[in-house]
Amino acid sequence: MTRPTSRSLAQSNAHFRRAVDRLPLGVSSSFRYWGDDRTIYVERGKGGRLWDVDGNEYVDYRLGYGPAILGYADDRVDAAARAGMEVGGVFALSTRRELAVAERIAKMVPSVELVRFSNSGTEAVMAALRLARAYTGREAYVLVEGSYHGLFDAAMWMANVADWQPGQGDPAKVPYSRGIPQTVGALAHLTPMNDSERLEDLFRRHGDRLAAMLIEPIQGNCCAISARPEFVRLARALCDRHGVLLIVDEVKTGFRVAKGGVQALIGVRPDISTFAKAMANGYQIAAIGGRAEVMRTFRPGGAAHGGTYTAHSVALAAAEKTLEILDETPALADIAAYGERLKAGIGAILDRRGIVHSFSGHPAMFGLFFAAAPPDNYRDWKRSDYSFYDALARRLHDAGVICEPDSREPWFVCAAHDAACLADTLQGFEAALDQTLDLVEAEALA
Ligand code: PMP
Question: What is the pLDDT of residues 122-137, one digit of tens each?
Answer without folding.
Answer: 999 999 999 999 999 9
